């Protein structure tokens, strides 16, 4: 089977960013014998810079997997230039795809709808099934975060969204909330499949030496209790409250935030204004190293804004932390809270509450070795049931195979 998989923000594990699509494509090529074209941007959004030739050369070749690095308009801040960046990637994908031999199935992934719309048009022209992967509910999330108020743009994006839901032969969602949201739009639930994020089991093994080394890299003493946040630093992540929690931490406790985004400079200034020596903001690191940094911590933080749109979120760090056996301190109510509490892998600290977050970290610090071991076991059990990338990739592939067989 020949598969096209397009995501504007996809990267391989040696680059910081979203590795889901690379891991799926690699699994399909290696385990299912598929021929996969993965379409990605040469401009890496989280760090606002181009992929280097050295980074490309460091990616091991995989038989059956072809990486297509597309140009997109560079930008430094989230203003109109980011919209140009999105639109340019969608246009380049469409134009290059026009002149390539048709696949058997085409998958285009949000968050932005321009790429998905280009994917639908290409699939229609080439007469192949179109799969719409919904990573984020556009424009609903933009509206509820206050990032989109122009009624004309809202009307256009809403039309695009509904059109894609109707025209897609298959819709892949990452959370139960997304599935309910789309079904409530009148879309047949039988064509909506939940394939959440996950981790590649066996891709990483812990060692005490590695833990010590990465503690030193972060500048954290061995006897310090460390809570880590890994990921985007944007308005949606509400990291101001994580930084402010440093004012209320018990002595001997630190927070490290690893990543980048439009709020990073603001967070650095806030830390300096408050004089917080127990809060550290580090640059983003490749996914191939993020497990080492996270394993060197004592617990993981999941933070999102106190907004209805995030009640249905299921961020990738949920799977990273549970895979590594780290207790989770979450500020996110809704689906994340339900998973954390149901599987007994952490606690809910309250939304946008610095004192509550600090108190929750202090509570985790008091956990016995037996309780921490049970949390680690619970986390691995959850990953085995719902977050094993190999199982998820196979389920996804079977859906694609069914689509292609039906088309033929």
Explain how this protein is built.
This protein has helices at 20-31, 53-57, 80-98, 113-126, 140-144, 151-167, 176-183, 208-218, 239-244, 264-274, 287-295, 316-323, 335-342, 354-365, 369-387, 389-407; strands spanning 2-6, 35-41, 43-44, 49-50, 65-70, 105-109, 130-134, 170-173, 192-194, 225-230, 253-258, 279-282, 299-302, 328-330, 346-348. A seven-stranded parallel sheet has the order 5-2-1-6-7-8-9, sandwiched between helices. Strands 12-11-10-13-14-15 form a six-stranded parallel sheet, sandwiched between helices. The protein is built from 16 helices and 15 strands. It starts with a strand and ends with a helix. Helix 1 packs across helix 16 (389-407), helix 3 packs parallel to helix 4 and helix 12 packs across helix 15 (369-387). By secondary structure, it is an alpha/beta fold. Pfam families: Glyco_trans_4_4, Glycos_transf_1. This is Glycosyltransferase involved in cell wall biosynthesis. InterPro entries: Glyco_trans_1, Glyco_trans_4-like_N. It comes from Croceifilum oryzae.
Distance between the termini: 12 Å
Q: Please count the beta strands (DSSP E, at least 2 residues each).
A: 15
Shape: globular
What radius of gyration results from the CA coordinates? Answer: 21 Å
Determine the strand fraction and express it as a percent band: 15-25%
Organism: Croceifilum oryzae
Protein name: Glycosyltransferase involved in cell wall biosynthesis
Domain Glycosyltransferase subfamily 4-like N-terminal: 21-198
Domain Glycosyl transferase family: 211-375
């Amino acid at each position: 089977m020949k598969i096209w998989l397009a995501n504007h923000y996809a990267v391989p594990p040696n680059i910081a960013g979203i590795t889901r699509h690379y891991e799926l494509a690699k699994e399909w090529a290696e385990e299912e014998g598929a021929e996969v074209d993965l379409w990605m941007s040469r401009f890496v959004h989280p760090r606002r810079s181009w992929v280097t030739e050295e980074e490309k050369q460091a990616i091991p070749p995989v038989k059956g997997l072809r990486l297509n690095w597309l140009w997109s308009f560079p930008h430094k801040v989230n203003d109109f230039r980011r919209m140009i960046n999105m639109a340019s990637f969608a246009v380049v994908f469409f134009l290059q795809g026009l002149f390539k031999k048709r696949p058997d199935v085409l998958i285009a992934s949000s968050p932005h709808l321009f790429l998905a719309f280009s994917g639908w048009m290409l699939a229609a022209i080439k007469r192949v099934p179109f799969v719409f992967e919904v990573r984020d509910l556009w424009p609903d999330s933009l509206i509820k975060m206050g990032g989109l108020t122009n009624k004309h743009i809202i009307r256009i994006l809403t039309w695009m969204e509904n059109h894609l839901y109707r025209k897609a032969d298959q819709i892949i969602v990452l959370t139960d909330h997304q599935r309910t949201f789309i079904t409530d739009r009148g879309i047949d639930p039988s064509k909506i499949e939940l394939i959440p994020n996950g981790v590649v089991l066996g891709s990483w093994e812990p060692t005490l030496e590695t833990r010590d080394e990465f503690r030193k890299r972060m500048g954290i003493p061995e006897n310090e209790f460390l809570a880590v946040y890994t990921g985007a630093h944007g308005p949606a992540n509400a990291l101001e409250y994580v930084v402010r929690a440093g004012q209320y931490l018990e002595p001997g406790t630190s927070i490290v935030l690893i990543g980048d985004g439009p709020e990073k400079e603001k967070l650095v200034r806030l830390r300096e204004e408050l004089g917080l020596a127990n809060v550290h903001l580090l640059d983003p690191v490749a996914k191939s190293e993020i497990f080492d940094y996270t394993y060197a911590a004592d617990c993981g933080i999941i933070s999102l804004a106190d907004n209805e749109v995030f009640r249905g979120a299921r961020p990738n760090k949920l799977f990273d932390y549970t895979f590594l056996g780290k207790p989770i301190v979450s500020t996110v109510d809704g689906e994340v809270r339900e998973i954390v509490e149901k599987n007994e892998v952490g606690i809910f600290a309250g939304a946008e509450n610095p004192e509550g977050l600090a108190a929750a970290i202090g509570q985790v610090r008091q956990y016995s070795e037996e309780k921490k071991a049970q949390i680690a076991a619970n986390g691995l059990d959850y990953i085995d049931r719902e977050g094993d990338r190999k199982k998820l990739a196979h389920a996804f592939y079977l859906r694609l195979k069914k689509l292609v067989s039906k088309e033929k």
